[in-house]
Design brief:
The structure holds 3 protein chains of 3 kinds. Helices cover 21% and strands 28% of the residues of chain A. Chain A has 4 helices and 11 strands. In chain A, strand 4 and strand 5 form a beta hairpin. Chain B has a 3-stranded antiparallel sheet, with no helix packed on it. The termini of chain B are far apart. Chain C has 2 domains: 151 residues, Immunoglobulin-like (Sandwich); 141 residues, Immunoglobulin-like. Classes of the chains: A alpha/beta, B mainly alpha, C mainly beta. Chains in contact: A-B, B-C. Chains A and B meet through helix 2, strand 4, helix 3 and helix 4 of A and helix 27, helix 29, helix 31, helix 33 and helix 37 of B. Chain A: One of its GO terms (cellular component) is cytosol. Chain A: One of its GO terms (biological process) is retrograde transport, endosome to Golgi. Chain A: Belongs to the VPS29 family. Chain A: It comes from Lachancea lanzarotensis.
Chain lengths: 244, 856, 312
């Protein structure tokens, strides 16, 4: 059973659309059984239509920029819950955008939430930063932002040496991407006057990495596929989680 | 001699006669064989057959006559001389069998070297005139053409010319017959006639195909001997079906180069056609051919060769010019042409110029201008059927495919906008939508203000609200929807919002100017700015982030960027204010969140004053306008989350002021359970945790803002509230949640720093136990053997909502209040939660010795 | 006749070189329909040609025949076949009669040969066998007896090639080349112009022409060209006329204004009779253009043409 987790699309206020390559990957009807929207995904008509086209089984939790209720269910005023639980296979999955989890994205705080909801897996969002880890036998998944939307959180460090962890690697690869975009900017720089001459195209730095997660749940095994868009190419990582 | 009544009978007769004929041929009884052939041919005189059936019969007979023909050739001069036979067969009393036989003999005779070719050709074609019945005549002449086609290989030009003349003569006669077929029979069967005629068109077209085979690459021959005659016939026949078909065939069968050389002739002919002929089809076919020429001849040499053809006639080698001349002429000579007919023609020429002169904007401009003028001439009569035509014209795939060109067109071609604005509002909106889609899909960067303004202007229709809505009674509903903070989809507005993301300029000032331009334009759309403002604001955020990153990379620019950033925050503030002014009640929650996020951004930029201002702004909205209790709770918790991640507010003790205010608001929330949760959440405000992008690390970084005493105070306070909650289930659940918080802090440090010690935790566990026990009487009967065997599971969510999980469904349902029907097992919620927490503590004992002090 | 009497003598007439001579095949003149398909075969002679041959009188073995003389004659006559209810031939004119005695009266004891020779015989008419008129040439041998004479005929065929005397019109040669043009029509309905290359044709000739449609409101089904041969005999008021014709479709379907339809008719394949004129009968040939419309109505226009025999 395939479960697609998308979060923080922020269309249209921060992003135009899903990356074309993502759309091609997931935009196939009847392949994915359930889609979880982990907040900030409900404001775009075209995006909602696209998700509905993937699967009719859509679970939504509220992000801070979502309205109280779903725009699509105009008549049945169903409120978007802050958190909810999904049962798939032998797993119970807690879903939550996490904008009311304090401290934000704190593993211990999330663990507390997992305990409160009595779930094996926590799907959360809000950070625009894809991550997955296990703690105390529970599985924590944040699919990041599916559109690479801008995040008002602290920006990842610009100094590659200061940070040893995984996030820096991503940032590093972004730094690699710079020469190419700089060339594009140089081409556009003709009419620029004094200031920008030496500046590189730094727009990419203000974007997050686009990513989403796909969970393949078979009985007590959950295989997580993490899709990230790096330098225009889709990268897939795989993590397997077994319920003990 | 008579004919069969049905096609089947006719074919059967033919087969019989063929067998008899073959038998006679074997015995060299030529006269008898001819008699059978003649009987067979009589079937072709039948007026009872439909064209299709006639064709079927013809095919069968053709094969039979081929047998005869072969015999003629083989026994020529051995048993007979074909010259004699040619005369002999002419004694047949009926003209149709006579001519078929005559052509069979004649064509057989042509195979012998000594045959008087010219005379035979001439005679055969002349005698064919005797058959004036359209269908019979057509097939007879088709037979002539089929039988003679093998003799048209000629090397010297005179013979070639003769052959060409022969085919053209036959073609002209066939076309006349074909046209005449339309007028056969009663008037009410006109349509059927037309249909039948179309079934027969290949018979006529075959002649042109044959011509194209003969002419090969002899352009002179084509230009002087072939095309004028064909075109003359096309014009003269005045027949719609024929004209349309023939011009199409001419375009298809002759080489592209020829069309280049004779373009003017072709176009002039188009103007002389029957007014009922759809000009656009013909033009399109021609354009396709010419475009195909470019496609096929990617080789420059070929292309030059092709263009050399054109110079034969045209002083000006510009193809577009020729078409333009045609267009003006058409406009003069055919004022009857409707927009419906004109638009596709323009579309065709557009296609041509885009293919041949891909970068030439002025050509396109001229075309759109022409169309615009025409639109004006026709006044407001533009009907809906035209919509798709104009849509096709304005958003032709050829235009859109190259986004750079498309942009150039949008921004440099005034006529484009003119033509667009001449359309009805609905179409304008459709087009604007598609334009935006195209740009966003290609992720085109808009870098200059002029460019942006042009696009906004083109998309101007989207700012105009559809007035019908205002008058409808739905208006009120919509109003209230916005008031309650509900979102309504507006795909048009969504696209405009996305447009802001296309704006980009390396220069931050210029970029900011682009955003301001957007803002100014969007102002027109009134309340709809609720859709755009967040997008513009988000772009300001990005700009601010850019400044922040730049100043980090190049400390020397820090001062200057600092000024810029302040300016940008001012713009951001203005955007939020605009939204407030325009929508107010509709979006307080949104305004609140925007302020909070802007504030956190300001904090990250070390602009504590600004951050403080935005936070204060958020509090003001909270105090004055947020009324929904659930929204209030979420707002406070979100504020706490944001504040907890700030780092630069400590000057002027902004931080203390803000977190106190936040906690205070939390403790004043309407519902006790909200108060409790808000306060224990706010305890984190006195316990900063690591922000790894800043290089902070738990256990390493010393400078965390932490005041354990306050943490404990918050927890104690929330516990008091929890205790005062009358609902036992809620009360116990809240206490377990507080216990969870305690565990959090317990892990984070010892009592000296967190003030949350073993004693306190043990006390809390005891309290919860007692409380659960006191309510045990109520719950025991059900709880006795555990609630796990019941089918439903219920949990209390992060905000105190009830989450019902039904095994029948993969997704839980969430309610804000406990619904009585599902309330049966509520009692088990805190019990189970408590058990899980205790289990967690037990587990921790294995890893952390400190936990051993806790009594479980 | 011979069926009733057992003829005591066989008379055989053999023309010189008969076997090598050209023959014509002429439809049997008998009235019975089956017999009509039978053909009679006759040797051909021309005008001015000598007719010679040999008569053999064969007496039955052991018998003898007494006779008053044997005569051979060459006869050319015009016979009317059935005038006014008479079913038998009625000789109208014997325009040629030459005779010669072969032997004086006496007794024939055994078979005997007698050559005969008519030198340079002038033959005024062509042989002709029509419905009402029969122009015949024959050699007649008569054995005169006291009782009934014994007679034997031998018919031969005479063809005349372009004899001025018979065809005065042909003689004025310039007219021969002149084309025939006719302009006919039905008001507001049909207007055609047709043209034949000439008005006089030899029997092996080809009629060539064209028809030009100036106006057609008529729904034409087809158009035929007929050659009609009309024989007329007798004198007013007892004139008899009868015609035979060939039909030849020259157009199928309805042409529009401005169309030109070609005419070409090979005469050579048909058994036509040259036009001729005599006191007792005339043979005239007409070319008839017939237009048949969709409703089966026929519109026609006849024009006389001269046919003459011409040496190949």
């Amino acid at each position: 059973m395939l479960l697609l987790a998308l979060s923080d699309a922020h269309i249209p206020e921060r992003a135009i659309d899903l990356p074309h390559k993502f759309k091609k990957l997931i935009g196939v009807p009847n392949k994915i059984e359930q889609v979880v929207l982990l907040g900030n995904c409900t404001k775009s008509y075209s995006f909602v239509k696209f998700v509905e086209h993937i699967s009719s089984n859509i679970v939504v939790v509220r992000g801070e920029f979502d309205s109280k209720s779903l725009p699509s269910t105009k008549n049945a005023r169903e409120e978007i819950p802050l958190s909810t639980i999904i049962k798939q296979g032998n797993f119970t999955i807690g879903c939550c955008n996490g904008y009311t989890v304090v401290p934000k994205s704190d593993p211990l705080a999330l663990l507390t939430l997992a305990r409160q909801l009595d779930v094996d897996i926590i799907l959360w969002g809000g950070t625009h930063n894809v991550e997955a880890y296990t703690l105390e036998g529970k599985f924590f998944i944040n699919p990041g932002t599916c559109t690479g939307a801008f995040s008002t959180d602290w920006p990842p460090s610009q100094d590659p040496e200061a940070e040893p962890d995984k996030k820096t690697d991503e940032t590093g690869s972004f730094a690699d991407a710079e020469p190419a975009s700089a060339a594009a900017a140089a081409a556009a720089a003709v009419d620029e006057t004094n200031e920008a001459e030496t500046e590189s195209d730094d727009e990419a730095d203000t974007q997050s990495v686009s990513s989403f997660c796909l969970l393949d749940i078979q009985g007590s095994t959950c295989t997580l596929y993490i899709y990230t868009l790096v330098e225009g190419e889709v990268k897939v990582d795989k993590v397997v989680y077994n319920k003990s | 001699m008579s004919y069969a009544e049905t096609i089947d009978q006719a074919v059967t007769n033919c087969k019989q006669q063929t067998i008899l004929m073959q038998r006679c041929l074997v015995q060299d009884k030529l006269m008898d064989a001819l008699k059978h052939a003649s009987v067979m041919l009589t079937e072709l005189r039948s007026p009872l057959l439909s064209p299709k059936q006639y064709y079927e019969l013809y095919i069968s007979i053709y094969d039979s006559l081929s047998i005869l023909s072969t015999y003629f050739v083989e026994s020529h001069t051995k048993r007979h001389h074909l010259a004699d036979l040619y005369e002999l067969v002419q004694y047949a009393g009926n003209i149709l069998p006579r001519l078929y036989l005559m052509i069979t003999v004649g064509s057989a005779y042509l195979q012998s070297a000594d045959a008087p070719r010219e005379e035979i050709f001439k005679d055969m074609i002349e005698m064919c005139k005797g058959v004036q019945n359209p269908i019979r005549g057509l097939f007879l002449r088709y037979y002539l053409s089929q039988r003679t086609k093998q003799f048209f290989q000629a090397d010297d030009s005179e013979a070639k010319k003769a052959n060409v003349n022969f085919i053209i003569t036959n073609f002209i006669e066939m076309n006349k017959l074909w046209v005449r077929l339309q007028h056969q029979g009663p008037l009410r069967e006109r349509e059927q006639r037309t249909r039948e005629r179309k079934e027969l068109k290949v018979l006529i077209g075959a002649n042109l195909v044959r011509l194209s085979q003969i002419v090969e690459m002899d352009f002179e021959l084509y230009r002087t001997e072939i095309l004028p005659l064909i075109l003359d016939q096309v014009v003269q026949c005045r027949d719609v079906v024929s004209q349309e078909y023939l011009l199409d065939v001419v375009c298809q069968v002759f080489p592209d180069e020829f069309h280049l050389g004779t373009l003017s002739d072709l176009l002039t002919t188009i103007l002389k056609l029957n007014p009922a002929v759809p000009i656009n089809k013909v033009v399109l076919t021609l354009v396709e051919r010419l475009n195909g020429f470019v496609e096929r001849n990617t080789d420059v040499e070929d292309l030059t060769r092709g263009l050399a053809f054109m110079s034969v006639e045209e002083g000006d080698k510009n193809l577009f010019f020729i078409f333009w001349k045609f267009l003006s002429q058409m406009s003069e000579e055919r004022p009857d042409l409707s927009l419906q007919e004109l638009a596709p023609v323009i579309r065709g020429i557009l296609k041509l110029t885009l293919r041949w002169y891909p970068d030439n904007i002025s050509n396109v401009d001229v075309l759109f201008k022409f169309m615009h003028e025409k639109c004006k001439d026709y006044g407001k009569a533009a009907s809906e059927e035209l919509d798709s035509l104009f849509h096709d014209l304005l958003l032709a795939s050829e235009i859109k495919s190259d986004t750079a060109f498309f942009m150039k067109l949008l921004t440099e071609c005034d006529a484009y906008e003119g033509l667009l604005s001449a359309q009805n509002l609905r179409l304008q909106k459709d087009c604007a939508n598609e334009i935006l889609d195209t740009l966003t899909y290609a992720e085109w960067r808009i870098t200059s203000k002029a460019e942006l303004e042009k696009i906004l202007q083109v998309c101007g229709s989207l700012f105009k609200s559809t007035t019908e809505k205002a008058s409808s009674s739905l208006m009120l509903d919509e109003e209230s929807e916005l008031d309650s903070g509900n979102w309504t989809f507006a795909p048009d507005q969504e696209k405009l919002a996305q447009l802001t993301h296309l704006c980009y300029n390396k220069s931050i000032d210029s970029h900011s100017e682009l955003l301001l331009t957007c803002r100014n334009w969007f102002q027109q759309s009134g309340k709809n700015i609720i859709y755009h403002s967040p997008a513009i604001l988000a772009n300001y955020w990005k700009l601010i982030r850019r400044c922040q990153l730049r100043s980090k990379k190049k400390p020397e620019t820090r001062e200057k960027l600092h000024v810029t950033m302040k300016q940008l925050f001012k713009h951001a503030s203005r955007i939020i204010n605009d939204l407030y002014n325009a929508c107010g009640a509709g979006c307080f929650d949104l305004l609140y969140k925007l302020n909070v996020q802007t504030a956190s951004l300001a904090d990250q930029c070390e602009l504590s004053d600004i951050a403080y201002d935005f936070f204060s702004q958020a509090f003001t909205i909270f105090e004055e306008s947020l009324s929904d209790s659930r929204i209030q709770f979420q707002a406070i918790v979100n504020m706490a989350q944001t504040l907890q991640k700030t780092r630069n507010l400590h000057t002027e003790s902004y931080y203390e002021t803000l977190i106190t205010r936040c906690t205070l608001h939390g403790s004043k929330l309407l519902k006790k359970q909200d108060q409790c949760r808000a306060v224990y959440t706010c305890s984190h405000l006195w316990w900063a945790t690591e922000i790894s992008p800043l290089g902070e690390e738990e256990g390493v970084t010393e400078s965390f803002f932490r005041e354990g005493k306050r943490v404990l105070e918050c927890l104690q306070r929330s516990l008091r509230v929890a205790d005062s909650v009358m609902d036992n289930v809620q009360s116990c659940e809240l206490m377990v949640e507080i216990l969870d918080r305690c565990c959090y802090y317990y892990i984070h440090g010892d009592e000296t720093s967190t003030h949350v010690g073993v004693k306190y935790i043990n006390g809390l566990i005891e309290l919860i136990r007692t409380n659960l026990d006191s309510s045990a009487l109520e719950i025991n009967p059900i709880l006795g053997d555990g609630s796990k065997n019941t089918s439903d599971f219920t949990y209390i969510g992060i905000d105190g909502s009830y989450i019902y999980r039904n095994p029948a469904s993969s997704v839980a349902t969430v309610y804000n209040k406990a619904t009585p029907s599902k309330a049966v097992h509520l009692e088990s919620i805190p019990v189970e939660h408590f058990n899980r927490t205790l289990q967690y503590i037990r587990d921790q004992k294995d890893v952390d010795d400190r936990f051993k002090a806790i009594n479980v | 006749m011979a069926l009733f009497f057992k003829a005591p003598i066989d008379i055989e007439i053999l023309l010189d070189g008969e076997e090598s001579r050209k023959h014509v095949e002429i439809a049997n003149s008998s009235d019975s329909p089956t017999a009509r398909t039978l053909k009679d075969r006759y040797p051909i002679y021309e005008d001015g040609e000598s007719v010679s041959g040999r008569v053999t009188l064969r007496v039955k073995e052991g018998k003898k025949l007494e006779h008053l003389g044997v005569k051979v004659s060459l006869v050319g006559s015009v016979d009317l076949l059935k005038s006014n209810g008479e079913s038998k031939k009625r000789p109208a004119e014997t325009f040629l009669s030459l005779s010669a005695d072969l032997c004086p009266h006496g007794e024939l004891m055994h078979s005997q040969n007698f050559p005969f020779h008519f030198k340079d015989v002038e033959k005024r008419y062509e042989s002709y066998r029509g419905k009402n008129v029969d122009v015949s040439y024959y050699v007649k041998v008569t054995v005169f007896r006291k009782s009934t004479d014994i007679v034997k005929h031998k018919r031969f065929w005479c063809l005349l090639y372009n004899r001025d005397a018979l065809l005065p019109a042909v003689s004025s040669t310039p007219a021969d080349a002149k084309s025939v043009k006719l302009n006919i029509g039905i008001e507001n309905c049909l207007h055609i112009e047709f043209e034949y290359s000439k008005s006089q044709f030899s029997l092996k000739d080809v009629i060539v022409g064209r028809i030009y449609f100036l106006l057609t409101r008529l729904k034409v089904k087809h158009m035929e060209l007929s050659v009609i041969t009309r024989e007329t005999c007798g004198l007013e008021p007892n004139q008899l006329s009868d015609s035979t014709s060939i039909r030849y479709e020259i157009m199928d379907g309805s042409p529009v204004k401005g169309e030109t339809i070609p005419i070409r008719l090979f005469l050579g394949g048909y058994d036509l009779t040259p036009s001729s004129q005599s006191n007792y009968f005339s043979i005239k040939n007409y070319l008839s253009l017939v237009i048949i419309d969709d409703d089966g109505r026929r519109y026609f226009k006849q024009s006389e043409i001269m046919l003459y025999r011409k040496r190949n």
